[in-house]
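Bench log, entry 3. Co-assembly request; chain sequences pasted below exactly as received.
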Amino acid sequence: MKAVGARLPRYDGVGHATGRTVYVDDVRVNGMLHTKALRSPHHHAGIKHLDTSRAERMPGVAAVVTHEDVPLLTYGHLSALGIPADEPLLGAEDVRYKGQPIAVVAAEDADAAQAGVEAVDVEFEERPALFDMRKSFDADAPRIHHWGAVYPHFEGEMNVRQIRKGDIERAFEQAYKIISGVYRPAAIEQMPLETQVGLSVPEPDGRFTIYSCTQALYFSMGVVAAHLQLPLNKFKFVGGTVGGGFGGKVDTATETLCTLLAQKSGRPVKWRWTREEEFLCSSTRAPWHMEIIDAVSADGWILGRKMLTLHDAGAYARFSPYGVTKHSFHHTGAYTIPNLHFDGYVCFTNRVPTSAMRGYGVTSVSFAVETHMSRIAEELGVDPLELRLKNANRIGDTSPNGITYTDPSTVDVLHAIAGATDADLPAPYRDASRDRRAGEWLPEHLVSQLSDSEGH
Amino acid sequence: MGSTAEVIQPGSPSEAASAFGDGAAVAVLAGGTLLVPDLHFGRARPERVIMLGDAGLNYVSRNNGTVSIGAATPIAALVGEATPLGPCAASIGDNEIRAQATVGGNLCAPAGFGDLQGPLLALGATARSAGAGGERSEPLEDFLAGRAGRLLLDVSYAEPAAGALAGLGRPHAHHYTVMAVSGARSRSGAVRLAVVGAGAVGSRLRAAEALAGDPDAAGVAAAGEVAPSDDPLASGWYRARTLPALVRQVLSDLEASA
Amino acid sequence: MNIVVNGTNRAVESPPLTPLLHVLREELDVLSPKAGCENGGCGACTVLLDGAPRRSCLTAVGSIGGAAVTTVEGLGTPEDMSAVQRAFVHYCAAQCGFCTPGMILAATAYLERGGSTEVAAISEALAGHVCRCTGYLKIVDAVAAARDGDFDLSTTAESPHTTVLG
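Structure output for the full assembly:
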C-alpha cells in the first residue's frame, strides 16, 4: 500500500510542464491530409441537391465523403441499449441543426480543404425551425422527425419517462401548503481547451490507427466500426491524452469521418475543429425546463412531489433518454419524499444536439431541488438547514426508483455546512444522524416508504 | 491557412501614409490582435497589408500640456495615464492583449471594441490621419464618423484638470465592457462627457454636458440623446436604464475632484 | 526570413502574415504552443517575445523583427526544469495540460519582472489564460511558490488555498 494516502506526483506532470505531452494535434504522420466540413447554414432544411464533383476536382483535394459513402449512415449512440438510431453521420435528405455536417473534404492543407468545401454544390429548402422545447407539444410545432418532436421510445413505447410512487393524491389532500417553482437552466458548452480532433492512419494491413481525443475510447471504437461496418479488430485506437473533455468528448465527433476519408484517399487524415466549430457545432449540456409542485406540512415535511421535466435533446437523441432516466431517479435530490408523480420528456428542437457534461442529467435537477428547498423554507418560515435535515435521506429510505439507501451522506454534509457557516442548530437537528428513521424522525407519512432491509 | 497579401513595412509616418493611399484594398496591421486571425481564417482578404511596427507611430509625447499618442502605441503604454484614459486602458483585454493591441486599432475597430473612444472623446482629442485628400486633423468625433478610408496617425489632447470613468462591470478579463461613461473637466472648466457601448461608436453626451451642474438631470438627458441597441452583451433597454446612473457617477466624481 | 526560437536560428518559409503559432507548430515542429482558439481568447498559444508574453496566434511572423521566441521547450527539459516548471509539477498545477505551456510562460515573465506573490496580482497577470480543469487555485499556488525554486518532485504540495479566490 504505497499509493493509498500518499501524495504521489502526477504521472504526466513533467510532460505537461515541459511541453512534451503529445496531444492528437501534435502527432505528425507523413503525407497527412487536413479536413474541413460543409455544414448546414440553416437550422432546419431539406437538402434538394448535393453534388461534390466540382469539389473533387479542386487542386489539393484528395477525397470527399458524403452520406453516400457511409456503409451504415444512421447509428445511434445508445443503439446497444435499444434506443433507436436517429442521427445520420452526414446529412442526407434533411439537416436539423445549424452546423450539421453534410460533406467532408480532405486535402493537402486546410486552405485547399476549405476551398473544396466551398466548391460543393448544394441546395437547401429551408423549413420552419423549433428552438423552444416548451413548444414541442404544440399541434403546429415544426415537425423535426417523422415521429414528431418528442422522443417516443421509453419503456412500453411511451413518450414519457414516468415515476409513480406512493399515494400522490392523498399527499396533496393532506398538504398544509402547496409550493411550486419552475427552474430553467440553459445550455452550457463544455469548452475543453483542446477542440475536437482526430487523426486516422490507414495501415498496410488494411487496419486503421486512430489517434483520438475521446473520453470514451472503446465506445468510440464501436461507433466507428458500426458506421464502417467493419469488425473491431480493424481499428487500433490511440487515446489517453485528452486536452479537457468535461463530457464534450463522449460523442464521437471526428474519428468516423477521418477514417472514411482515410479509407477513400488511402492517406492519413486529420480533422481539428476550430473554436468556432466547437462552440457552434459540438454538443452542449442540455437546457432543461423543470416544474416542481410540492405538498408540504406546516412543520416542514415534504409529503409529496409532482414534477414535470422537459429536456432539450437538440436535433437528435444521442444520450438524452438515458440522461432523463437518470434525472428521474434523482428528482428528489438528497431528500426523501414518499409520494411521487414524475413525468419527463425528451424534446427535440433544431438546436445542436445536447449530450454529456459532468453529472449528466443530475446537475439540472440538483439545481432545481436545492433552489426549491430554499423556496419551501422561505414560504414556511422555517430554517433552510433544518428543513433539509428533516427530509434528508437516511438509511433504509428508498429512492424514487425504489433503491434502498444503505449509506446516505446527506446528514453529514448538512452538518458540515452548518459548521462551515456557524449555523446554530437546535438539539434534535444537531444530533441527527444518517441512521435508520425512528421516533420523531419517522412521521406517519414516511413509514410506508421504508425498506425492510437494514442497509449497510 | 494564410493570407498571401503583399506586405508593406513603412519606415516612417509619411511612408505609411503614401503606402496607404486612399485605403482601397489595404488592411493596416498595427498590433494585429484583430487582423491576424481575420487574415488566417480568410475573414479579411485585402490585397495589401501595411505593418505599422516600424513606422514611427509608437510614442506618447508631452508638450506644453498637450499629450500626443501615436496610433501604433500599445494600449499597455497608457495604463499609467490619468483618469479616465489610464483606468480605461487598464480594463481592456488582458496583460498580453494590452501589450500587443494598439490605440489606433482600438479606435478604428468595429463596433464591440473601441473602449478608448470614450476617454479620448471626453478629453476632446484631435485625430490626425492620412488618406484620400492628404493628411488632416479633426475632432476625434468627426474622425470616428468617417474613419473608413483613413489611416490614423495620432491623437492628441490637452491634459485635463480632472477626469472620471464609470463602467458596467468587468467580471474577468474576457468580458467586454457593456457600457462606460467618461468625463473630463478641462483647465478652462468645460465638462465633456462621452459614452461607449450605447451605439456603434462612442459619442459625446452634449445634452448631459449642458446640465453638468445637475447630475440627476444630466443623467436623464443622456438617456435621451442615445438610442442603444441590443447585442450579445446587453439589451438596449438595459443600457438606456443604466446610462443615467453612470452619468451621475461620473459627474459626482468630477465634482468631488474639484 | 529567419527567427530565433529557443536560442536557435531557424529559417522560415511561411508568408510573413502567417500567425507565429502556425509557423512554430506546422513549419518548425515546435509543438508546445497550442491552438486553443486561434483568436487570442484562451492564452494556450502564448510564447515569450524577448521575454514578454505574447499571443502567437495574433502575431504575424513577419512582424516580430529580430525578437527572440521562447517556448516552454526552451525554459527547461524534463531532466532540468526551470523553477516555475518544477513548481507546476509539485503543486499539480497542470491537469489536462493544454493551458500549461502558456501559463508557465506568462508566470515566468511575471516573476522575472518582479511580480509579487499576492493572489490578486498573480490572477491579474494570468487573466488571459483560460484553464478549464484546475479552478486556478493550484496554478496560483505554484506561481506564488515558484520563487523558492526547490521542490521535491517525488511528492506533491498541500495547497495553501482552501477557499475560492477573492
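Residues 162-166 of chain C have pLDDT under 50 and may be disordered. Chain C has two domains: 2-75, 83-146.
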